[in-house]
Amino acid sequence: MPGRSPDRVEAVECAAQGRAAAAVRMNWAQRLKRVFAIDIEKCEGCGGRVKIIAAIEDREVIQKILAHLGLQEGAAAQAWPRGPPHSLGLFD
């Protein structure tokens, strides 16, 4: 880069790589909490910490588990429609 010393360019690249590495280290539970304010690591009943012991991502395994439980995949998509959102008074 013109006008920059090689040491400065290297430091900028290292800093960018450090931020990227930190983003990669964030697990899906942390991302849910950060993006959607969903804390799945907190018990809704007592407020204690919940330890995630497994995340099942294989579609075939998920289908087998749902079938065993008598549920079907996509059941959430077939749920009853909800009403309109509550007005927050922003545009009243």
Question: What's this entry about, in short?
Answer:
By secondary structure, the chain is mainly α. 42% of the residues lie in helices and 0% in strands. The longest helix is centred in the first third of the chain and has 20 residues, at 6-25.
Share in β-strands? under 5%
Residue ranges: pLDDT <50 for 5 or more in a row? none
Report the major sheet: none
Number of strands: 0
- How far the N terminus sits from the C terminus, by CA atoms, comes to 53 Å
Number of helices: 3
In N-to-C order, the SSE pattern is HHH
User: Helix/strand-derived class?
Assistant: mainly alpha
Shape: extended
CA radius of gyration is 22 Å
Question: What is the average per-residue confidence, as pLDDT, rounded to a whole number?
Answer: 75
Number of domains: 1
Helix content: 40-55%
